[in-house]
């Protein structure tokens, strides 16, 4: 197990280094100037600002300087938010994206896994058809369609929930964005759970249990759930990383001050420090999520446990 | 049980979330104005920014020599200064600061704070992007460009703590108007220096908790992309008449989200109403709709260094083929057709040179050598990804139908769009310009040679001569007459094709009192109240 961990760690370092290098040079290859604005800066002012942000140095020097600072935990200052440390921006925005991700994942799991189990237990029945049809709709309908519809109905018409905004201390603000974000993942999860459960339900030991007269719900929960959840669990890790890093649409529709909006803004304004800082964070998050997924998979699957 | 839980979950979520009071109702009770402000400010340091979004917040936190009048564009109520006078030719101005002027931390506000602010903004090492706004001051440009190094030579002085003297390089009869721009505001010397050197580009002085201002409100909190929260400043000279307890600026970038939030009771006013929603709002909730003139013009910028487009006849033909009324009635709702770059401002009414004239447009294009558009190159219209595609599609159709010429549309993200224009890497582009103050120079000076905002490749010695002539005119009416001549020359050359004078379409709740239409949209936050 230690060897596996060490190997994973070394792989992660290499992946992050490659990610940094590619992202940096892609940023530099983008057309446009981070100091461009509607009201043009006079050349003598631009020179001063370029010097402040290290933009007057050769690209290779900028690459090395930024890497050095990043290794010390300092992603540097933002250009768009005029000198604000990127660490401060991430420090404010990431907890919100993370909180949204956790709640949305909770919504996805509490809807997706029971729905998948029920569908598997009632295979080809009305409930199966119904839940899988809903899941298909959930997968096909993008969140930028569902989000505004929910905001319009629950926010504007019923005035039951805030149409936008986010407050960590006010659960009312969590509901619409988390449900919108969670629904698509719930749909995937239900389909994966159904497939996993069906495979487990077709195993010999299930037949044996049935022959022994074990009740259906007991077979489902006690005997099949652990094995049936393996595909869903394998999906949850990367999905969580995706949910935290890719909730841009939801953040825009519901005006959530998360990291996704900073990320897109930084790309639009060529704010290299923010792009690099957020990309590296997302990279680490994906690596961590995949690692935890592997650990969970090993725990759930005895065969993997032996090989590890 | 599982089935029930499935059905109960959304209901439970709704129950836990149900709001008893809307955010506006809570804010009305607490006397907090909720303002949609489009985007996050780049900074709240007035010396590091150039935009309207920042201006909205900074004007709540800082106040200039002259205050914004809540009702009139051409009224100049006292601000940090109680009164002022000028010499006969408007080149020497003396502002007398109020003796009770204080910073929000209680420190006295003196003329030296203004001098410090001007010194800081003009200092070459700071790199203040909008230092040009102070170039009216004698030797300010020279100091900013590093041509002189002694700030004593710059035309600002303080004979005593409460007197500020400004020597200008040319007559500026509209100076009180300019001093309302945030680049002319004071900054707290004692606080800026506490957190770093005068020329340090970014220090913690402008963070919430440190920010000290002289405006009606103080900075309480700034959460990126979420809100800028301000609270009433008890040390403001006119605090007794400030009726709000605070203003909350909310950066809602998506205007559809913003409008939905407003209609759901989450904002008192929006930054903008998308044109496509204007008719719907007018039909359903007309009490909220506001359409007011604004000092901004939409136009097509032409790269006059491109062959064919370098011919003034071609540019004029393109301009005469635009049916501006049709555009304003159907797409740019609320805007009015523009015949020049500068909208009417007070006594300045430029002569309109262009209007829809398809026959003359065809004739001019034929004269230029392209009868019915034959042989005309297929150029591109550049727009930013957030620009109005509908407007350029309409232009495309007008030019094709009237002149037989075809333009393609190319869209770039904001950064690339701006860079392409600044490097003259475009054919024509959809652009706009908003004035910083109420004088035609805010629109006319940018078309001079070498100006970073010209971006057309066009210049005219005669145009610049007229601007220089106007600059030294003392008699206001004559000065404006010379500007009219310059503008006519500019309009006949058509380096830009004017389209429409902007109108600000937005939503406002009726309980907001003291909010009146203003050309610059610079509302005096201290004069606004909430009366549900």
Automatic annotation (TrEMBL), chain A:
It is found in: Cell membrane. Residues 94-293 form the ABC transmembrane type-1 domain. Keywords: Cell membrane, Membrane, Transmembrane, Transmembrane helix, Transport. The chain crosses the membrane at residues 12-31, 98-121, 133-151, 171-189, 232-254, 274-300. It is a multi-pass membrane protein. InterPro entries: BPD_transp_1_N, MetI-like, MetI-like_sf. PROSITE patterns: ABC_TM1. GO terms for biological process: transmembrane transport. Its main location: membrane. GO terms for cellular component: plasma membrane. Belongs to the binding-protein-dependent transport system permease family. PANTHER family: INNER MEMBRANE ABC TRANSPORTER, OLIGOPEPTIDE TRANSPORT SYSTEM PERMEASE PROTEIN OPPB. This is ABC transporter permease. It comes from Luteolibacter luteus.
Automatic annotation (TrEMBL), chain B:
GO terms for cellular component: ATP-binding cassette (ABC) transporter complex; outer membrane-bounded periplasmic space. It comes from the Bacteria. GO terms for biological process: peptide transport. It holds the Pfam family SBP_bac_5. InterPro entries: Peptide/Ni-bd, SBP_5, SBP_5_dom. Residues 78-454 form the Solute-binding protein family domain. One of its GO terms (molecular function) is peptide transmembrane transporter activity. Its main location: other. Gene3D superfamilies: Dipeptide-binding Protein, Domain 1, Dipeptide-binding Protein, Domain 3, Periplasmic binding protein-like II. Belongs to the bacterial solute-binding protein 5 family. This is Peptide ABC transporter substrate-binding protein. It comes from Luteolibacter luteus.
